[in-house]
Design a protein that fits this description.
Helices cover 39% and strands 15% of the residues. It has two domains: 252 residues, Type I PLP-dependent aspartate aminotransferase-like (Major domain) (Aspartate Aminotransferase, domain 2), CATH 3.40.640.10; 99 residues, Aspartate Aminotransferase, domain 1, CATH 3.90.1150. Helix 3 crosses helix 10, helix 4 crosses helix 5 and helix 11 runs parallel beside helix 13. It is α/β, with parallel strands linked by helices. Strands 1-7-6-5-4-2-3 form a seven-stranded mixed sheet, sandwiched between helices. A four-stranded antiparallel sheet has the order 10-11-13-12, with helices on one face. A two-stranded antiparallel sheet has the order 8-9. It is globular, with a radius of gyration of 23 Å. It is built from 13 helices and 13 strands. Bound molecules: pyridoxal-5'-phosphate (PLP). Pyridoxal-5'-phosphate (PLP) binds next to helix 4.
Protein backbone atom coordinates (compact mmCIF):
# COMPACT_ATOMS: atom_id res chain seq x y z
CA UNK A 1 0.00 0.00 0.00
CA UNK A 2 1.22 3.46 -0.80
CA UNK A 3 2.39 5.46 2.12
CA UNK A 4 -0.33 8.08 2.52
CA UNK A 5 1.61 10.07 5.06
CA UNK A 6 1.32 13.80 4.44
CA UNK A 7 3.98 15.77 6.23
CA UNK A 8 2.84 18.46 8.62
CA UNK A 9 3.10 21.94 7.17
CA UNK A 10 6.59 23.32 7.71
CA UNK A 11 6.27 25.36 10.94
CA UNK A 12 8.58 28.03 9.55
CA UNK A 13 6.34 28.42 6.53
CA UNK A 14 3.26 28.55 8.75
CA UNK A 15 4.78 31.32 10.84
CA UNK A 16 5.70 33.26 7.69
CA UNK A 17 2.17 32.78 6.30
CA UNK A 18 0.71 34.32 9.44
CA UNK A 19 3.14 37.20 9.24
CA UNK A 20 2.46 37.83 5.53
CA UNK A 21 -1.31 37.59 6.07
CA UNK A 22 -1.22 40.28 8.76
CA UNK A 23 0.89 42.60 6.61
CA UNK A 24 -1.34 42.07 3.60
CA UNK A 25 -4.40 43.14 5.60
CA UNK A 26 -2.67 46.28 6.94
CA UNK A 27 -1.53 47.16 3.43
CA UNK A 28 -5.00 48.29 2.33
CA UNK A 29 -5.18 51.05 4.95
CA UNK A 30 -1.49 52.00 4.90
CA UNK A 31 -1.50 55.61 3.72
CA UNK A 32 0.87 57.57 5.94
CA UNK A 33 4.17 56.76 4.22
CA UNK A 34 5.50 57.46 0.74
CA UNK A 35 5.57 53.95 -0.66
CA UNK A 36 3.72 52.68 -3.69
CA UNK A 37 1.99 49.45 -2.68
CA UNK A 38 1.05 48.64 -6.28
CA UNK A 39 3.97 46.34 -6.84
CA UNK A 40 4.89 45.62 -10.44
CA UNK A 41 7.04 42.53 -10.01
CA UNK A 42 4.81 39.47 -10.32
CA UNK A 43 6.14 38.67 -13.81
CA UNK A 44 9.68 39.28 -12.64
CA UNK A 45 9.42 36.68 -9.86
CA UNK A 46 7.90 34.13 -12.24
CA UNK A 47 10.83 34.65 -14.56
CA UNK A 48 13.30 34.62 -11.66
CA UNK A 49 12.17 31.28 -10.20
CA UNK A 50 12.71 29.53 -13.52
CA UNK A 51 15.86 31.36 -14.51
CA UNK A 52 18.58 29.72 -12.44
CA UNK A 53 19.42 33.12 -11.03
CA UNK A 54 17.47 32.11 -7.93
CA UNK A 55 20.32 29.65 -7.30
CA UNK A 56 23.08 32.21 -7.84
CA UNK A 57 24.71 34.81 -5.61
CA UNK A 58 24.93 37.91 -7.76
CA UNK A 59 26.69 41.08 -6.60
CA UNK A 60 27.31 44.46 -8.26
CA UNK A 61 30.73 45.04 -6.68
CA UNK A 62 32.03 47.30 -9.41
CA UNK A 63 31.39 50.52 -11.29
CA UNK A 64 28.53 50.30 -13.81
CA UNK A 65 30.23 52.98 -15.93
CA UNK A 66 33.70 51.40 -16.00
CA UNK A 67 34.53 50.13 -19.49
CA UNK A 68 36.72 47.39 -17.95
CA UNK A 69 34.63 44.47 -16.64
CA UNK A 70 34.60 43.88 -12.88
CA UNK A 71 36.49 40.73 -11.85
CA UNK A 72 33.39 39.79 -9.89
CA UNK A 73 31.74 38.40 -12.99
CA UNK A 74 28.43 37.40 -11.44
CA UNK A 75 26.96 40.89 -11.60
CA UNK A 76 24.15 42.82 -13.27
CA UNK A 77 26.20 45.99 -13.86
CA UNK A 78 25.10 46.20 -17.51
CA UNK A 79 21.45 46.36 -16.41
CA UNK A 80 22.32 48.86 -13.69
CA UNK A 81 23.91 51.11 -16.30
CA UNK A 82 20.91 50.75 -18.62
CA UNK A 83 18.56 51.84 -15.84
CA UNK A 84 20.72 54.87 -15.04
CA UNK A 85 21.07 55.80 -18.70
CA UNK A 86 17.33 55.58 -19.15
CA UNK A 87 16.65 57.74 -16.07
CA UNK A 88 19.53 60.25 -16.42
CA UNK A 89 18.01 62.32 -19.28
CA UNK A 90 14.82 62.88 -17.22
CA UNK A 91 16.96 64.95 -14.87
CA UNK A 92 18.91 66.77 -17.59
CA UNK A 93 22.01 64.53 -17.61
CA UNK A 94 23.54 63.94 -21.03
CA UNK A 95 24.44 60.34 -21.66
CA UNK A 96 28.10 61.19 -22.24
CA UNK A 97 28.36 63.13 -18.98
CA UNK A 98 26.50 60.85 -16.62
CA UNK A 99 27.73 58.79 -13.72
CA UNK A 100 25.71 57.06 -11.06
CA UNK A 101 24.82 53.97 -9.15
CA UNK A 102 21.70 52.22 -8.01
CA UNK A 103 21.64 52.59 -4.26
CA UNK A 104 20.07 50.76 -1.35
CA UNK A 105 17.85 53.74 -0.43
CA UNK A 106 17.36 57.49 -0.57
CA UNK A 107 19.68 57.84 2.41
CA UNK A 108 22.39 55.89 0.57
CA UNK A 109 21.97 58.34 -2.34
CA UNK A 110 22.22 61.34 -0.02
CA UNK A 111 25.32 59.81 1.55
CA UNK A 112 26.91 59.74 -1.89
CA UNK A 113 25.71 63.28 -2.66
CA UNK A 114 27.28 64.68 0.49
CA UNK A 115 30.45 62.58 0.21
CA UNK A 116 30.97 63.35 -3.47
CA UNK A 117 30.13 67.02 -2.91
CA UNK A 118 32.54 67.37 0.00
CA UNK A 119 35.37 65.65 -1.92
CA UNK A 120 34.68 67.71 -5.03
CA UNK A 121 34.77 70.99 -3.12
CA UNK A 122 37.88 69.96 -1.15
CA UNK A 123 39.66 69.08 -4.36
CA UNK A 124 38.69 72.38 -6.03
CA UNK A 125 39.36 74.67 -3.06
CA UNK A 126 41.50 72.77 -0.56
CA UNK A 127 38.84 73.47 2.08
CA UNK A 128 36.12 71.34 3.64
CA UNK A 129 32.64 72.73 2.89
CA UNK A 130 29.83 73.75 5.17
CA UNK A 131 26.64 71.73 4.57
CA UNK A 132 23.42 73.78 4.42
CA UNK A 133 20.09 72.02 4.74
CA UNK A 134 16.66 73.11 5.91
CA UNK A 135 15.20 72.01 9.23
CA UNK A 136 12.31 70.37 7.35
CA UNK A 137 14.56 68.30 5.08
CA UNK A 138 14.83 64.58 5.81
CA UNK A 139 16.97 63.91 8.87
CA UNK A 140 19.34 61.76 6.82
CA UNK A 141 21.28 64.80 5.56
CA UNK A 142 21.94 65.93 9.14
CA UNK A 143 22.94 62.42 10.15
CA UNK A 144 25.23 62.09 7.14
CA UNK A 145 26.93 65.46 7.72
CA UNK A 146 27.58 64.21 11.25
CA UNK A 147 28.85 60.86 9.96
CA UNK A 148 31.17 62.60 7.51
CA UNK A 149 32.30 65.08 10.16
CA UNK A 150 31.24 68.13 8.15
CA UNK A 151 30.20 71.49 9.55
CA UNK A 152 26.45 71.85 9.28
CA UNK A 153 24.05 74.78 9.19
CA UNK A 154 20.40 73.91 9.69
CA UNK A 155 18.32 76.62 8.08
CA UNK A 156 14.82 77.41 9.37
CA UNK A 157 11.91 76.49 7.12
CA UNK A 158 8.73 78.46 6.49
CA UNK A 159 5.27 77.16 7.25
CA UNK A 160 5.20 75.39 3.84
CA UNK A 161 8.34 73.40 4.67
CA UNK A 162 10.69 75.44 2.44
CA UNK A 163 14.13 76.69 3.43
CA UNK A 164 13.82 80.43 4.21
CA UNK A 165 16.16 82.23 1.76
CA UNK A 166 16.82 85.18 4.11
CA UNK A 167 17.77 82.76 6.88
CA UNK A 168 20.09 80.95 4.47
CA UNK A 169 21.75 84.25 3.57
CA UNK A 170 22.25 85.06 7.25
CA UNK A 171 23.93 81.70 7.87
CA UNK A 172 26.04 81.60 4.71
CA UNK A 173 29.80 81.70 5.33
CA UNK A 174 31.01 83.05 1.97
CA UNK A 175 34.69 82.27 2.49
CA UNK A 176 33.99 78.54 2.96
CA UNK A 177 32.76 76.28 0.13
CA UNK A 178 29.01 75.63 0.33
CA UNK A 179 27.43 72.20 -0.05
CA UNK A 180 23.74 72.96 -0.34
CA UNK A 181 21.27 70.10 0.02
CA UNK A 182 17.98 71.12 -1.57
CA UNK A 183 14.87 69.34 -0.33
CA UNK A 184 12.65 68.58 -3.27
CA UNK A 185 9.67 67.34 -1.40
CA UNK A 186 10.15 67.46 2.35
CA UNK A 187 9.15 64.30 4.15
CA UNK A 188 6.21 65.68 6.10
CA UNK A 189 4.75 68.67 4.24
CA UNK A 190 6.03 68.08 0.72
CA UNK A 191 7.66 71.52 0.61
CA UNK A 192 10.11 72.22 -2.23
CA UNK A 193 13.06 74.52 -1.55
CA UNK A 194 13.13 77.58 -3.78
CA UNK A 195 16.31 76.90 -5.75
CA UNK A 196 16.07 80.17 -7.67
CA UNK A 197 15.95 82.27 -4.51
CA UNK A 198 18.89 80.40 -2.93
CA UNK A 199 20.85 80.60 -6.18
CA UNK A 200 20.26 84.33 -6.36
CA UNK A 201 21.89 84.68 -2.94
CA UNK A 202 24.77 82.43 -3.96
CA UNK A 203 25.12 84.49 -7.14
CA UNK A 204 25.91 87.51 -4.99
CA UNK A 205 28.93 85.58 -3.65
CA UNK A 206 30.92 84.55 -6.70
CA UNK A 207 33.88 83.83 -4.40
CA UNK A 208 31.98 80.91 -2.79
CA UNK A 209 32.50 77.51 -4.40
CA UNK A 210 29.16 75.69 -4.46
CA UNK A 211 28.02 72.09 -4.87
CA UNK A 212 24.28 71.48 -5.15
CA UNK A 213 22.81 68.13 -4.17
CA UNK A 214 19.08 67.49 -4.46
CA UNK A 215 17.27 65.15 -2.13
CA UNK A 216 14.28 64.24 -4.28
CA UNK A 217 13.55 60.91 -2.62
CA UNK A 218 9.86 60.82 -3.45
CA UNK A 219 9.15 63.76 -5.79
CA UNK A 220 12.11 62.93 -8.04
CA UNK A 221 10.28 59.78 -9.11
CA UNK A 222 7.19 61.53 -10.44
CA UNK A 223 8.06 65.18 -11.19
CA UNK A 224 9.48 64.30 -14.64
CA UNK A 225 5.95 63.30 -15.63
CA UNK A 226 4.34 66.60 -14.63
CA UNK A 227 4.30 70.23 -15.70
CA UNK A 228 6.92 70.75 -12.94
CA UNK A 229 9.52 68.59 -14.68
CA UNK A 230 11.97 71.50 -15.02
CA UNK A 231 12.47 71.59 -11.25
CA UNK A 232 14.46 68.38 -11.51
CA UNK A 233 16.13 69.25 -14.81
CA UNK A 234 19.71 70.34 -14.20
CA UNK A 235 19.76 72.09 -17.57
CA UNK A 236 17.13 74.48 -16.23
CA UNK A 237 17.98 74.50 -12.50
CA UNK A 238 21.64 73.55 -12.29
CA UNK A 239 22.65 70.93 -9.74
CA UNK A 240 25.53 68.52 -9.35
CA UNK A 241 23.84 65.41 -8.05
CA UNK A 242 20.45 64.03 -7.17
CA UNK A 243 19.25 61.16 -4.97
CA UNK A 244 15.91 59.46 -5.55
CA UNK A 245 14.37 56.52 -3.74
CA UNK A 246 13.50 53.50 -5.86
CA UNK A 247 10.89 52.07 -3.53
CA UNK A 248 8.74 55.16 -3.12
CA UNK A 249 7.27 55.87 -6.55
CA UNK A 250 8.30 53.00 -8.79
CA UNK A 251 6.49 50.01 -7.29
CA UNK A 252 9.53 48.17 -5.90
CA UNK A 253 9.07 45.68 -3.08
CA UNK A 254 12.21 46.54 -1.10
CA UNK A 255 14.24 49.64 -0.26
CA UNK A 256 16.15 50.97 -3.26
CA UNK A 257 17.26 54.20 -4.89
CA UNK A 258 19.49 55.82 -7.43
CA UNK A 259 22.19 58.46 -7.34
CA UNK A 260 23.06 60.49 -10.43
CA UNK A 261 25.89 62.93 -11.00
CA UNK A 262 28.30 64.05 -13.72
CA UNK A 263 31.59 62.57 -14.91
CA UNK A 264 33.27 65.79 -13.74
CA UNK A 265 32.13 65.11 -10.18
CA UNK A 266 33.11 61.43 -10.46
CA UNK A 267 36.56 62.39 -11.78
CA UNK A 268 37.16 64.66 -8.81
CA UNK A 269 36.81 61.92 -6.21
CA UNK A 270 39.62 60.06 -4.45
CA UNK A 271 40.75 57.13 -6.55
CA UNK A 272 40.45 53.69 -5.01
CA UNK A 273 42.01 51.30 -7.49
CA UNK A 274 41.01 47.86 -6.33
CA UNK A 275 42.98 45.16 -8.08
CA UNK A 276 40.80 42.24 -7.01
CA UNK A 277 37.81 43.95 -8.67
CA UNK A 278 39.77 45.39 -11.63
CA UNK A 279 38.19 48.73 -10.92
CA UNK A 280 38.48 52.23 -9.55
CA UNK A 281 35.72 52.21 -6.92
CA UNK A 282 34.42 55.75 -6.43
CA UNK A 283 31.30 54.69 -4.57
CA UNK A 284 31.14 54.18 -0.79
CA UNK A 285 29.89 50.57 -0.81
CA UNK A 286 31.83 47.61 -2.12
CA UNK A 287 29.12 44.95 -2.47
CA UNK A 288 25.88 46.30 -3.89
CA UNK A 289 22.64 44.61 -4.84
CA UNK A 290 22.46 43.04 -8.28
CA UNK A 291 18.77 42.26 -7.77
CA UNK A 292 17.59 45.84 -7.27
CA UNK A 293 18.88 46.92 -10.72
CA UNK A 294 17.19 43.92 -12.33
CA UNK A 295 13.89 44.71 -10.66
CA UNK A 296 14.09 48.40 -11.59
CA UNK A 297 15.03 47.41 -15.13
CA UNK A 298 12.00 45.13 -15.27
CA UNK A 299 9.71 47.89 -14.02
CA UNK A 300 11.07 50.36 -16.58
CA UNK A 301 10.67 47.78 -19.36
CA UNK A 302 7.02 47.30 -18.45
CA UNK A 303 5.97 50.86 -17.67
CA UNK A 304 5.76 53.39 -20.46
CA UNK A 305 6.15 57.14 -20.17
CA UNK A 306 2.35 57.33 -20.66
CA UNK A 307 1.80 54.86 -17.79
CA UNK A 308 3.97 56.94 -15.45
CA UNK A 309 2.21 60.13 -16.58
CA UNK A 310 -1.18 58.54 -15.96
CA UNK A 311 -0.17 57.22 -12.51
CA UNK A 312 1.19 60.62 -11.51
CA UNK A 313 -1.87 62.48 -12.74
CA UNK A 314 -4.04 60.13 -10.65
CA UNK A 315 -1.93 60.70 -7.53
CA UNK A 316 -1.91 64.49 -7.80
CA UNK A 317 -5.61 64.74 -8.64
CA UNK A 318 -6.53 62.46 -5.76
CA UNK A 319 -4.33 64.49 -3.39
CA UNK A 320 -6.10 67.72 -4.42
CA UNK A 321 -9.48 66.00 -3.98
CA UNK A 322 -8.52 64.71 -0.52
CA UNK A 323 -7.44 68.16 0.64
CA UNK A 324 -10.71 69.70 -0.62
CA UNK A 325 -12.74 66.89 0.97
CA UNK A 326 -11.10 67.52 4.36
CA UNK A 327 -11.60 71.26 4.07
CA UNK A 328 -15.22 70.49 3.08
CA UNK A 329 -15.82 68.99 6.54
CA UNK A 330 -14.01 71.95 8.13
CA UNK A 331 -10.92 69.91 8.92
CA UNK A 332 -7.80 72.06 8.36
CA UNK A 333 -5.72 70.47 5.60
CA UNK A 334 -2.94 71.71 3.31
CA UNK A 335 -1.27 70.63 0.08
CA UNK A 336 1.86 72.21 -1.37
CA UNK A 337 2.26 72.79 -5.11
CA UNK A 338 3.86 69.76 -6.87
CA UNK A 339 3.01 67.59 -3.87
CA UNK A 340 1.04 64.38 -3.34
CA UNK A 341 1.25 64.76 0.46
CA UNK A 342 -1.84 66.14 2.19
CA UNK A 343 -1.12 67.27 5.74
CA UNK A 344 -3.82 68.11 8.23
CA UNK A 345 -4.77 68.67 11.83
CA UNK A 346 -4.07 65.43 13.65
CA UNK A 347 -7.17 63.22 13.99
CA UNK A 348 -7.92 61.06 17.06
CA UNK A 349 -5.62 58.14 17.83
CA UNK A 350 -8.04 55.46 16.52
CA UNK A 351 -7.77 57.04 13.07
CA UNK A 352 -4.00 57.62 13.06
CA UNK A 353 -3.50 54.00 14.11
CA UNK A 354 -6.00 52.55 11.66
CA UNK A 355 -4.42 54.31 8.66
CA UNK A 356 -0.77 54.28 9.79
CA UNK A 357 -0.53 58.10 9.87
CA UNK A 358 2.84 59.54 10.88
CA UNK A 359 2.78 62.43 13.38
CA UNK A 360 4.40 65.85 13.27
CA UNK A 361 3.99 69.16 15.05
CA UNK A 362 3.88 72.80 13.94
CA UNK A 363 2.47 75.37 16.32
CA UNK A 364 2.08 77.82 13.41
CA UNK A 365 -0.63 75.45 12.17
CA UNK A 366 -2.28 74.81 15.51
CA UNK A 367 -0.07 71.99 16.83
CA UNK A 368 -0.22 68.27 16.12
CA UNK A 369 -0.40 67.18 12.47
CA UNK A 370 -0.71 64.01 10.41
CA UNK A 371 -0.40 63.39 6.71
CA UNK A 372 -1.50 61.05 3.97
CA UNK A 373 0.88 60.42 1.11
CA UNK A 374 -1.27 59.79 -1.94
CA UNK A 375 0.67 57.06 -3.69
CA UNK A 376 -0.66 54.93 -6.54
CA UNK A 377 -2.58 52.55 -4.24
CA UNK A 378 -4.27 55.38 -2.31
CA UNK A 379 -7.35 55.73 -4.48
CA UNK A 380 -10.54 57.70 -3.87
CA UNK A 381 -12.30 54.40 -3.10
CA UNK A 382 -9.76 53.62 -0.38
CA UNK A 383 -9.96 57.15 0.96
CA UNK A 384 -13.76 57.02 1.21
CA UNK A 385 -13.56 55.01 4.46
CA UNK A 386 -10.98 57.39 5.86
CA UNK A 387 -13.18 60.39 5.04
CA UNK A 388 -16.17 58.72 6.72
CA UNK A 389 -14.07 58.26 9.87
CA UNK A 390 -12.90 61.88 9.65
CA UNK A 391 -16.45 63.14 9.26
CA UNK A 392 -17.45 61.30 12.41
CA UNK A 393 -14.40 62.75 14.21
CA UNK A 394 -15.25 66.28 13.04
CA UNK A 395 -18.87 65.89 14.20
CA UNK A 396 -17.76 64.53 17.55
CA UNK A 397 -15.43 67.51 17.96
CA UNK A 398 -18.19 70.01 17.07
CA UNK A 399 -20.55 68.27 19.50
CA UNK A 400 -17.98 68.53 22.28
CA UNK A 401 -17.26 72.21 21.65
CA UNK A 402 -21.03 73.01 21.55
CA UNK A 403 -21.49 71.29 24.93
CA UNK A 404 -18.59 73.20 26.47
C1 LIG B 1 12.80 63.64 1.50
C2 LIG B 1 13.38 62.34 1.94
N1 LIG B 1 14.69 62.12 1.78
C3 LIG B 1 15.26 60.96 2.14
C4 LIG B 1 14.51 59.96 2.69
C5 LIG B 1 15.19 58.70 3.09
O1 LIG B 1 14.92 57.77 2.12
P1 LIG B 1 15.15 56.23 2.41
O2 LIG B 1 14.10 55.86 3.42
O3 LIG B 1 14.94 55.62 1.08
O4 LIG B 1 16.50 56.08 2.96
C6 LIG B 1 13.14 60.13 2.88
C7 LIG B 1 12.32 59.05 3.46
O5 LIG B 1 11.14 59.10 3.57
C8 LIG B 1 12.55 61.34 2.50
O6 LIG B 1 11.26 61.57 2.66
Amino acid sequence: MADLHFPEADPAEKRLDEFAGELFISRSTFMGYPVNQKIHLVGFYKWFMGSGLNLTMVNNAGDPFDEEPSHFKLNSLAFEREVLERLGPLYGFDKDNLWGIITFSGTDGNNHGIYFGANYLKKKTGQAPVVYVSEDAHYSSRRLADLQNLDLKIIPADVHGRMIPEAFEKELIPDRPALVVFAMGTTFKGGVDDMDAINEILGRHPETAVYRHIDAALFGGYLPYTEFRDYVNRKVHPFDSIAISGHKYFGMDEPAGFFLTTMDVRDNQHRFDVSYLNCNMPMINCSRSAMIPLKLWWILQHTSQEDFTEQTKGMLETAAWLKESLNGIDWPAWLEPMSNTVYFKQPPKEITEKYGLAPDFDDRLGGALSHIVVMQHVTKERLAGFLEDMKAAAEAETGQSEKA
